[in-house]
Amino acid sequence: MQVLHEVEHLRAWAELDESDDGVVLWLNEARQFFPAAAAVLSDLLSRNRSIAIVGSMWPEDWADLHRRPRHGDDPAEITWWWHLERRHRPKIMMVQRFDEIGMSALKDAARSDRRIAAALDAHDGQEIQHLTGGPDLAQLAFDEDETALSPMERGVLLALLDVRRLGHQRPVPATLLAEAAAGYLPDSQRVTNDQRWIDAVLDALCCDPSNRAPGVLRAIHAVRSTADIGPADGYEPNRYLDYQARRLRWAQVPAEPLWTAAVRHACGDDLARLARAARDRHRLRHAAKLYLAAAGEGSGDALWELADMLEEAGDLDAPRRFAPHAASLGSQSARQYVADQYYETGDMVLAEQIYQALYDDGWILAAPRLAKIRADAGDETGAQRLEAEHDAFWDSIQTIKIAMPATAAEYATREGYEHAERRALRSAADGDTSLLVGLARMRFEENNDTEAERLARTAADAGAASPLREMAEARTPQRVSQDLLRYGLEPDGSTSDPW
Predict the structure, then answer these.
(1) Cβ neighbour number for residue 24 with a 10 Å cutoff
(2) What's the CA gap between 422 and 19, in Å, rounded?
(3) Considering the entire predicted model, what is its pTM?
(4) What tens digit of pLDDT does each residue of 22-51 get?
Protein backbone atom coordinates (compact mmCIF):
# COMPACT_ATOMS: atom_id res chain seq x y z
CA MET A 1 0.00 0.00 0.00
CA GLN A 2 1.16 3.51 -0.84
CA VAL A 3 -0.02 6.36 1.38
CA LEU A 4 -0.40 9.71 -0.42
CA HIS A 5 -0.63 12.93 1.57
CA GLU A 6 -1.01 15.59 -1.14
CA VAL A 7 -2.55 16.01 -4.57
CA GLU A 8 0.92 16.44 -6.08
CA HIS A 9 1.92 13.01 -4.72
CA LEU A 10 -1.06 11.56 -6.56
CA ARG A 11 -0.15 13.29 -9.81
CA ALA A 12 3.17 11.42 -9.75
CA TRP A 13 1.17 8.19 -9.88
CA ALA A 14 -0.45 9.30 -13.13
CA GLU A 15 2.64 7.86 -14.86
CA LEU A 16 1.83 4.32 -13.70
CA ASP A 17 1.49 1.73 -16.48
CA GLU A 18 0.06 -1.78 -16.63
CA SER A 19 3.12 -3.24 -14.87
CA ASP A 20 2.00 -1.60 -11.64
CA ASP A 21 -0.74 -4.15 -10.94
CA GLY A 22 -2.02 -4.83 -7.43
CA VAL A 23 -1.22 -1.38 -6.01
CA VAL A 24 -3.42 0.10 -3.27
CA LEU A 25 -3.32 3.89 -2.95
CA TRP A 26 -4.54 5.36 0.34
CA LEU A 27 -5.58 9.02 0.05
CA ASN A 28 -4.77 10.46 3.46
CA GLU A 29 -7.44 13.04 4.42
CA ALA A 30 -9.29 12.24 1.20
CA ARG A 31 -11.31 15.49 1.08
CA GLN A 32 -8.23 17.49 0.09
CA PHE A 33 -7.92 15.44 -3.10
CA PHE A 34 -11.36 16.36 -4.44
CA PRO A 35 -12.42 17.74 -6.79
CA ALA A 36 -8.89 18.77 -7.88
CA ALA A 37 -7.56 15.23 -8.41
CA ALA A 38 -10.70 13.70 -9.90
CA ALA A 39 -9.36 13.84 -13.46
CA VAL A 40 -6.10 12.11 -12.45
CA LEU A 41 -8.02 9.39 -10.59
CA SER A 42 -10.36 8.83 -13.53
CA ASP A 43 -7.36 8.39 -15.81
CA LEU A 44 -5.67 5.94 -13.43
CA LEU A 45 -8.78 3.84 -12.99
CA SER A 46 -9.48 3.72 -16.71
CA ARG A 47 -5.89 2.67 -17.58
CA ASN A 48 -5.29 0.15 -14.83
CA ARG A 49 -8.11 -1.87 -13.30
CA SER A 50 -5.74 -3.56 -10.84
CA ILE A 51 -5.31 -0.39 -8.80
CA ALA A 52 -7.47 0.14 -5.70
CA ILE A 53 -7.84 3.72 -4.47
CA VAL A 54 -9.09 4.08 -0.89
CA GLY A 55 -9.67 7.00 1.46
CA SER A 56 -11.99 8.18 4.21
CA MET A 57 -14.01 11.34 4.56
CA TRP A 58 -16.24 12.87 7.23
CA PRO A 59 -19.96 13.18 6.36
CA GLU A 60 -19.85 16.98 6.11
CA ASP A 61 -16.91 16.76 3.69
CA TRP A 62 -18.89 14.37 1.50
CA ALA A 63 -21.88 16.73 1.65
CA ASP A 64 -19.63 19.66 0.71
CA LEU A 65 -18.60 17.84 -2.45
CA HIS A 66 -22.27 17.55 -3.43
CA ARG A 67 -23.28 21.16 -2.91
CA ARG A 68 -23.98 23.44 -5.82
CA PRO A 69 -20.86 25.17 -7.25
CA ARG A 70 -19.77 28.42 -5.60
CA HIS A 71 -17.74 31.42 -6.67
CA GLY A 72 -14.14 30.45 -7.35
CA ASP A 73 -14.87 26.79 -8.14
CA ASP A 74 -13.27 25.33 -11.26
CA PRO A 75 -16.16 23.98 -13.41
CA ALA A 76 -13.87 21.44 -15.09
CA GLU A 77 -12.72 19.98 -11.75
CA ILE A 78 -16.28 19.74 -10.47
CA THR A 79 -17.42 18.02 -13.67
CA TRP A 80 -14.62 15.47 -13.40
CA TRP A 81 -15.62 14.71 -9.80
CA TRP A 82 -19.28 14.23 -10.73
CA HIS A 83 -18.33 11.86 -13.56
CA LEU A 84 -15.92 9.94 -11.31
CA GLU A 85 -18.61 9.42 -8.69
CA ARG A 86 -21.31 8.50 -11.19
CA ARG A 87 -19.08 5.91 -12.84
CA HIS A 88 -17.49 4.26 -9.80
CA ARG A 89 -20.06 4.81 -7.01
CA PRO A 90 -17.33 5.16 -4.36
CA LYS A 91 -19.43 5.82 -1.25
CA ILE A 92 -19.29 3.17 1.48
CA MET A 93 -20.87 4.09 4.82
CA MET A 94 -18.84 3.09 7.86
CA VAL A 95 -20.55 1.38 10.78
CA GLN A 96 -21.14 3.89 13.58
CA ARG A 97 -22.69 1.57 16.16
CA PHE A 98 -22.34 -2.03 17.29
CA ASP A 99 -25.07 -4.41 16.18
CA GLU A 100 -26.84 -6.73 18.64
CA ILE A 101 -24.11 -9.39 18.47
CA GLY A 102 -21.39 -6.78 18.87
CA MET A 103 -23.14 -5.20 21.87
CA SER A 104 -23.42 -8.60 23.56
CA ALA A 105 -19.69 -9.21 23.10
CA LEU A 106 -18.95 -5.67 24.32
CA LYS A 107 -20.91 -6.22 27.52
CA ASP A 108 -18.99 -9.42 28.16
CA ALA A 109 -15.69 -7.57 27.65
CA ALA A 110 -16.81 -4.74 29.95
CA ARG A 111 -16.55 -7.08 32.95
CA SER A 112 -12.77 -6.96 32.70
CA ASP A 113 -12.15 -3.62 30.91
CA ARG A 114 -13.01 -0.36 32.68
CA ARG A 115 -12.77 1.68 29.47
CA ILE A 116 -15.39 -0.47 27.76
CA ALA A 117 -17.56 -0.29 30.87
CA ALA A 118 -17.31 3.51 30.85
CA ALA A 119 -18.27 3.61 27.17
CA LEU A 120 -21.37 1.53 27.86
CA ASP A 121 -22.27 3.66 30.88
CA ALA A 122 -22.66 6.72 28.61
CA HIS A 123 -25.89 5.19 27.20
CA ASP A 124 -25.76 7.42 24.12
CA GLY A 125 -25.15 4.88 21.36
CA GLN A 126 -21.60 6.18 20.77
CA GLU A 127 -19.67 3.28 22.25
CA ILE A 128 -17.17 3.23 19.37
CA GLN A 129 -16.53 6.95 19.74
CA HIS A 130 -16.17 6.73 23.53
CA LEU A 131 -13.63 3.93 23.20
CA THR A 132 -11.42 6.26 21.16
CA GLY A 133 -12.01 9.08 23.63
CA GLY A 134 -13.63 11.42 21.07
CA PRO A 135 -16.65 12.70 23.04
CA ASP A 136 -14.55 13.14 26.19
CA LEU A 137 -11.91 15.08 24.26
CA ALA A 138 -14.65 17.25 22.72
CA GLN A 139 -15.96 18.05 26.19
CA LEU A 140 -12.48 19.18 27.23
CA ALA A 141 -12.28 21.45 24.19
CA PHE A 142 -15.74 23.00 24.03
CA ASP A 143 -17.11 22.99 27.58
CA GLU A 144 -16.00 26.25 29.18
CA ASP A 145 -16.77 24.85 32.63
CA GLU A 146 -14.29 22.03 32.05
CA THR A 147 -11.07 22.86 33.92
CA ALA A 148 -8.79 20.09 32.67
CA LEU A 149 -7.46 22.48 29.99
CA SER A 150 -5.96 25.80 31.03
CA PRO A 151 -7.45 28.96 29.44
CA MET A 152 -4.36 29.34 27.23
CA GLU A 153 -4.54 25.72 26.12
CA ARG A 154 -8.20 26.06 25.22
CA GLY A 155 -7.54 29.39 23.45
CA VAL A 156 -4.79 27.89 21.28
CA LEU A 157 -6.88 24.80 20.56
CA LEU A 158 -9.94 26.84 19.51
CA ALA A 159 -7.74 29.07 17.34
CA LEU A 160 -6.37 25.97 15.59
CA LEU A 161 -9.84 24.51 15.09
CA ASP A 162 -11.26 27.78 13.78
CA VAL A 163 -8.46 28.55 11.33
CA ARG A 164 -8.70 24.99 10.00
CA ARG A 165 -12.48 25.30 9.75
CA LEU A 166 -12.08 28.50 7.73
CA GLY A 167 -9.75 26.95 5.16
CA HIS A 168 -6.16 26.67 6.44
CA GLN A 169 -5.25 23.20 5.15
CA ARG A 170 -1.51 23.14 5.78
CA PRO A 171 -0.18 22.45 9.27
CA VAL A 172 -0.73 25.70 11.18
CA PRO A 173 2.48 27.42 12.35
CA ALA A 174 2.97 28.09 16.04
CA THR A 175 3.47 31.81 15.35
CA LEU A 176 -0.04 32.06 13.89
CA LEU A 177 -1.56 30.23 16.84
CA ALA A 178 0.32 32.32 19.39
CA GLU A 179 -1.06 35.55 17.94
CA ALA A 180 -4.55 34.24 17.22
CA ALA A 181 -5.05 32.82 20.75
CA ALA A 182 -5.26 36.35 22.16
CA GLY A 183 -8.73 36.66 20.64
CA TYR A 184 -10.02 33.81 22.79
CA LEU A 185 -8.80 35.12 26.15
CA PRO A 186 -9.86 38.04 28.37
CA ASP A 187 -7.22 40.58 29.39
CA SER A 188 -6.43 38.94 32.71
CA GLN A 189 -5.68 35.57 31.09
CA ARG A 190 -3.29 36.99 28.49
CA VAL A 191 -0.66 37.84 31.09
CA THR A 192 2.47 35.67 31.29
CA ASN A 193 6.16 36.18 31.94
CA ASP A 194 7.07 33.03 30.04
CA GLN A 195 8.41 34.09 26.63
CA ARG A 196 8.05 30.50 25.40
CA TRP A 197 4.53 29.96 26.67
CA ILE A 198 3.28 28.80 23.26
CA ASP A 199 5.80 25.92 23.22
CA ALA A 200 4.59 24.69 26.60
CA VAL A 201 0.95 24.96 25.54
CA LEU A 202 1.50 23.10 22.27
CA ASP A 203 3.51 20.39 24.01
CA ALA A 204 0.68 19.93 26.50
CA LEU A 205 -1.97 19.72 23.78
CA CYS A 206 0.12 17.23 21.81
CA CYS A 207 0.76 14.98 24.78
CA ASP A 208 -1.32 15.56 27.89
CA PRO A 209 -5.02 15.32 26.93
CA SER A 210 -4.78 11.53 26.69
CA ASN A 211 -3.99 11.59 30.41
CA ARG A 212 -6.91 13.91 31.13
CA ALA A 213 -9.57 12.00 29.19
CA PRO A 214 -10.03 8.29 28.45
CA GLY A 215 -9.15 6.95 25.02
CA VAL A 216 -6.23 7.23 22.66
CA LEU A 217 -6.91 10.53 20.90
CA ARG A 218 -4.78 13.63 21.35
CA ALA A 219 -6.07 17.16 20.84
CA ILE A 220 -3.45 18.11 18.24
CA HIS A 221 -0.35 16.65 16.67
CA ALA A 222 2.86 18.21 15.45
CA VAL A 223 3.88 17.88 11.80
CA ARG A 224 7.26 18.18 10.11
CA SER A 225 7.03 18.11 6.32
CA THR A 226 10.70 17.47 5.52
CA ALA A 227 12.38 14.06 5.89
CA ASP A 228 14.97 15.18 8.45
CA ILE A 229 14.61 15.52 12.22
CA GLY A 230 13.83 18.92 13.67
CA PRO A 231 11.13 21.14 15.16
CA ALA A 232 7.55 21.02 13.95
CA ASP A 233 6.57 23.02 10.87
CA GLY A 234 3.04 23.31 12.19
CA TYR A 235 0.17 21.65 13.99
CA GLU A 236 -3.01 19.87 12.95
CA PRO A 237 -6.11 19.25 15.08
CA ASN A 238 -7.51 15.86 15.92
CA ARG A 239 -10.00 15.00 13.17
CA TYR A 240 -12.80 14.20 15.61
CA LEU A 241 -12.38 17.63 17.20
CA ASP A 242 -12.20 19.20 13.75
CA TYR A 243 -15.49 17.54 12.82
CA GLN A 244 -17.17 18.61 16.05
CA ALA A 245 -15.88 22.18 15.72
CA ARG A 246 -17.52 22.50 12.31
CA ARG A 247 -20.83 21.33 13.80
CA LEU A 248 -20.68 23.36 17.02
CA ARG A 249 -18.93 26.56 15.87
CA TRP A 250 -20.49 26.99 12.41
CA ALA A 251 -21.79 30.48 13.22
CA GLN A 252 -18.72 31.64 15.17
CA VAL A 253 -16.64 34.37 13.51
CA PRO A 254 -13.18 34.56 15.10
CA ALA A 255 -12.00 37.82 16.61
CA GLU A 256 -9.57 40.25 14.98
CA PRO A 257 -6.33 38.58 16.18
CA LEU A 258 -6.93 35.40 14.15
CA TRP A 259 -7.49 37.26 10.88
CA THR A 260 -4.46 39.49 11.48
CA ALA A 261 -2.29 36.50 12.36
CA ALA A 262 -3.44 34.71 9.21
CA VAL A 263 -2.31 37.62 7.02
CA ARG A 264 1.10 37.56 8.70
CA HIS A 265 1.74 33.82 8.91
CA ALA A 266 -0.44 31.85 6.47
CA CYS A 267 0.91 31.23 2.99
CA GLY A 268 0.05 30.00 -0.48
CA ASP A 269 -3.44 28.69 -1.20
CA ASP A 270 -4.32 28.91 2.49
CA LEU A 271 -4.35 32.70 2.21
CA ALA A 272 -6.80 32.58 -0.69
CA ARG A 273 -9.07 30.09 1.09
CA LEU A 274 -9.13 32.22 4.24
CA ALA A 275 -9.84 35.29 2.12
CA ARG A 276 -12.86 33.53 0.61
CA ALA A 277 -14.03 32.54 4.08
CA ALA A 278 -13.84 36.19 5.17
CA ARG A 279 -15.63 37.37 2.03
CA ASP A 280 -18.34 34.71 2.41
CA ARG A 281 -18.94 36.12 5.90
CA HIS A 282 -18.95 39.73 4.58
CA ARG A 283 -15.80 40.52 6.56
CA LEU A 284 -14.54 42.50 3.57
CA ARG A 285 -11.68 44.37 5.27
CA HIS A 286 -10.05 41.13 6.34
CA ALA A 287 -10.82 39.47 3.00
CA ALA A 288 -9.05 42.30 1.17
CA LYS A 289 -5.91 41.96 3.30
CA LEU A 290 -5.82 38.19 2.82
CA TYR A 291 -6.41 38.48 -0.93
CA LEU A 292 -3.57 41.01 -1.22
CA ALA A 293 -1.26 38.74 0.77
CA ALA A 294 -2.13 35.83 -1.53
CA ALA A 295 -1.57 38.00 -4.61
CA GLY A 296 1.78 39.04 -3.14
CA GLU A 297 2.74 35.36 -3.23
CA GLY A 298 1.80 35.16 -6.91
CA SER A 299 -1.88 34.20 -6.93
CA GLY A 300 -3.59 35.84 -9.88
CA ASP A 301 -6.89 34.22 -8.95
CA ALA A 302 -6.78 35.86 -5.51
CA LEU A 303 -6.17 39.28 -7.06
CA TRP A 304 -9.03 38.76 -9.51
CA GLU A 305 -11.39 37.65 -6.74
CA LEU A 306 -10.44 40.83 -4.87
CA ALA A 307 -11.40 42.85 -7.95
CA ASP A 308 -14.73 41.02 -8.12
CA MET A 309 -15.35 41.65 -4.42
CA LEU A 310 -14.61 45.36 -4.78
CA GLU A 311 -16.89 45.61 -7.81
CA GLU A 312 -19.67 43.90 -5.85
CA ALA A 313 -19.13 46.45 -3.06
CA GLY A 314 -19.52 49.37 -5.47
CA ASP A 315 -16.04 49.93 -6.96
CA LEU A 316 -17.15 49.32 -10.55
CA ASP A 317 -13.75 50.15 -12.03
CA ALA A 318 -11.87 47.53 -9.99
CA PRO A 319 -11.90 44.77 -12.67
CA ARG A 320 -10.39 47.09 -15.28
CA ARG A 321 -7.64 48.22 -12.88
CA PHE A 322 -6.76 44.75 -11.61
CA ALA A 323 -7.18 42.65 -14.77
CA PRO A 324 -3.74 43.19 -16.39
CA HIS A 325 -1.80 42.29 -13.23
CA ALA A 326 -4.09 39.37 -12.35
CA ALA A 327 -3.77 38.06 -15.91
CA SER A 328 0.01 38.35 -15.76
CA LEU A 329 -0.08 36.22 -12.58
CA GLY A 330 -1.99 33.50 -14.41
CA SER A 331 -5.65 34.09 -13.61
CA GLN A 332 -7.66 32.53 -16.43
CA SER A 333 -10.72 34.61 -15.56
CA ALA A 334 -8.67 37.81 -15.71
CA ARG A 335 -7.15 36.75 -19.05
CA GLN A 336 -10.68 36.17 -20.33
CA TYR A 337 -11.67 39.66 -19.14
CA VAL A 338 -8.69 41.24 -20.94
CA ALA A 339 -9.54 39.32 -24.10
CA ASP A 340 -13.16 40.43 -23.83
CA GLN A 341 -12.04 44.07 -23.59
CA TYR A 342 -9.98 43.71 -26.77
CA TYR A 343 -12.89 41.99 -28.49
CA GLU A 344 -15.38 44.69 -27.52
CA THR A 345 -13.07 47.47 -28.71
CA GLY A 346 -12.51 45.72 -32.05
CA ASP A 347 -8.91 44.56 -31.59
CA MET A 348 -9.56 41.04 -32.89
CA VAL A 349 -5.90 40.14 -33.35
CA LEU A 350 -5.01 40.45 -29.67
CA ALA A 351 -8.38 39.07 -28.59
CA GLU A 352 -7.92 35.95 -30.73
CA GLN A 353 -4.39 35.40 -29.43
CA ILE A 354 -5.57 35.41 -25.81
CA TYR A 355 -8.70 33.35 -26.48
CA GLN A 356 -6.62 30.77 -28.35
CA ALA A 357 -4.07 30.58 -25.54
CA LEU A 358 -6.87 30.14 -23.01
CA TYR A 359 -8.51 27.45 -25.10
CA ASP A 360 -5.18 25.63 -25.49
CA ASP A 361 -4.85 25.71 -21.69
CA GLY A 362 -8.21 23.94 -21.36
CA TRP A 363 -10.30 27.04 -20.58
CA ILE A 364 -13.50 26.08 -22.39
CA LEU A 365 -15.19 29.42 -21.59
CA ALA A 366 -13.01 31.02 -24.28
CA ALA A 367 -14.58 28.85 -26.99
CA PRO A 368 -17.71 30.95 -27.84
CA ARG A 369 -15.85 34.18 -28.60
CA LEU A 370 -13.07 32.30 -30.37
CA ALA A 371 -15.73 30.54 -32.47
CA LYS A 372 -17.28 33.92 -33.38
CA ILE A 373 -13.92 35.28 -34.49
CA ARG A 374 -13.32 32.16 -36.60
CA ALA A 375 -16.78 32.43 -38.16
CA ASP A 376 -16.28 36.11 -39.00
CA ALA A 377 -12.99 35.15 -40.67
CA GLY A 378 -14.78 32.56 -42.82
CA ASP A 379 -13.65 29.45 -40.91
CA GLU A 380 -17.09 27.92 -40.41
CA THR A 381 -15.71 24.44 -39.78
CA GLY A 382 -13.43 25.63 -36.99
CA ALA A 383 -16.22 27.73 -35.50
CA GLN A 384 -18.66 24.81 -35.47
CA ARG A 385 -16.09 22.53 -33.84
CA LEU A 386 -15.49 25.04 -31.03
CA GLU A 387 -19.22 25.57 -30.48
CA ALA A 388 -19.79 21.81 -30.38
CA GLU A 389 -17.05 21.31 -27.76
CA HIS A 390 -18.44 24.14 -25.65
CA ASP A 391 -22.01 22.80 -25.87
CA ALA A 392 -20.84 19.25 -25.06
CA PHE A 393 -19.05 20.51 -21.96
CA TRP A 394 -22.15 22.23 -20.57
CA ASP A 395 -24.40 19.36 -21.61
CA SER A 396 -22.20 17.03 -19.55
CA ILE A 397 -22.69 19.24 -16.50
CA GLN A 398 -26.45 19.44 -16.99
CA THR A 399 -26.70 15.64 -17.06
CA ILE A 400 -25.53 15.55 -13.45
CA LYS A 401 -28.57 15.35 -11.22
CA ILE A 402 -28.45 17.23 -7.94
CA ALA A 403 -31.20 16.35 -5.52
CA MET A 404 -33.12 19.51 -4.65
CA PRO A 405 -34.46 19.57 -1.08
CA ALA A 406 -37.67 21.32 -0.14
CA THR A 407 -37.45 25.11 -0.05
CA ALA A 408 -37.63 27.26 3.06
CA ALA A 409 -41.13 28.40 2.08
CA GLU A 410 -42.28 24.79 1.70
CA TYR A 411 -40.94 23.88 5.14
CA ALA A 412 -42.47 27.00 6.70
CA THR A 413 -45.85 26.19 5.16
CA ARG A 414 -45.73 22.52 6.10
CA GLU A 415 -44.18 22.73 9.58
CA GLY A 416 -44.66 26.30 10.72
CA TYR A 417 -42.00 29.01 10.83
CA GLU A 418 -40.40 28.03 14.17
CA HIS A 419 -39.93 24.41 13.10
CA ALA A 420 -38.59 25.55 9.74
CA GLU A 421 -36.01 27.76 11.48
CA ARG A 422 -34.89 24.94 13.75
CA ARG A 423 -34.50 22.73 10.69
CA ALA A 424 -32.52 25.49 8.95
CA LEU A 425 -30.16 25.84 11.92
CA ARG A 426 -29.57 22.08 12.05
CA SER A 427 -28.84 22.06 8.32
CA ALA A 428 -26.43 24.98 8.72
CA ALA A 429 -24.59 23.08 11.46
CA ASP A 430 -24.19 20.25 8.95
CA GLY A 431 -22.75 22.66 6.39
CA ASP A 432 -25.85 23.50 4.31
CA THR A 433 -26.99 27.12 4.69
CA SER A 434 -29.54 27.07 1.85
CA LEU A 435 -32.58 26.83 4.14
CA LEU A 436 -31.29 29.63 6.37
CA VAL A 437 -30.70 31.82 3.32
CA GLY A 438 -34.20 31.01 2.04
CA LEU A 439 -35.84 31.92 5.36
CA ALA A 440 -33.99 35.25 5.49
CA ARG A 441 -35.15 36.13 1.98
CA MET A 442 -38.70 34.99 2.77
CA ARG A 443 -38.88 37.22 5.84
CA PHE A 444 -37.50 40.17 3.85
CA GLU A 445 -40.14 39.69 1.14
CA GLU A 446 -42.77 39.69 3.91
CA ASN A 447 -41.37 43.08 5.07
CA ASN A 448 -40.40 41.61 8.43
CA ASP A 449 -37.10 43.48 8.45
CA THR A 450 -36.11 42.64 12.03
CA GLU A 451 -36.40 38.87 11.55
CA ALA A 452 -34.91 39.09 8.05
CA GLU A 453 -31.79 40.89 9.28
CA ARG A 454 -31.37 38.53 12.24
CA LEU A 455 -31.45 35.51 9.97
CA ALA A 456 -29.30 37.19 7.32
CA ARG A 457 -26.62 38.02 9.87
CA THR A 458 -26.64 34.43 11.14
CA ALA A 459 -26.30 33.19 7.56
CA ALA A 460 -23.42 35.62 6.96
CA ASP A 461 -21.61 34.40 10.07
CA ALA A 462 -22.01 30.87 8.68
CA GLY A 463 -20.49 31.85 5.33
CA ALA A 464 -23.54 32.83 3.26
CA ALA A 465 -23.64 36.62 3.12
CA SER A 466 -25.79 37.00 0.00
CA PRO A 467 -29.08 37.81 1.84
CA LEU A 468 -27.35 40.47 3.91
CA ARG A 469 -25.89 42.07 0.78
CA GLU A 470 -29.26 41.93 -0.98
CA MET A 471 -30.96 43.69 1.92
CA ALA A 472 -28.26 46.35 2.02
CA GLU A 473 -28.65 46.93 -1.74
CA ALA A 474 -32.42 47.30 -1.34
CA ARG A 475 -31.86 49.95 1.34
CA THR A 476 -29.01 51.83 -0.35
CA PRO A 477 -30.58 55.28 0.28
CA GLN A 478 -29.80 54.65 3.94
CA ARG A 479 -26.23 55.57 4.87
CA VAL A 480 -25.85 52.63 7.26
CA SER A 481 -26.76 50.21 4.44
CA GLN A 482 -24.33 51.89 2.05
CA ASP A 483 -21.51 51.49 4.56
CA LEU A 484 -22.41 47.86 5.30
CA LEU A 485 -22.48 47.02 1.60
CA ARG A 486 -19.22 48.80 0.77
CA TYR A 487 -17.10 48.18 3.87
CA GLY A 488 -18.57 44.98 5.30
CA LEU A 489 -18.65 43.80 8.90
CA GLU A 490 -16.13 43.53 11.68
CA PRO A 491 -15.72 40.14 13.39
CA ASP A 492 -18.07 41.27 16.19
CA GLY A 493 -20.83 42.07 13.66
CA SER A 494 -20.53 45.86 13.70
CA THR A 495 -20.19 47.75 10.41
CA SER A 496 -16.58 48.41 9.41
CA ASP A 497 -15.21 51.91 9.11
CA PRO A 498 -13.98 53.00 5.66
CA TRP A 499 -10.81 51.13 4.71
Answers:
(1) 11
(2) 55
(3) 0.81
(4) 678 888 777 778 877 787 887 777 776 677
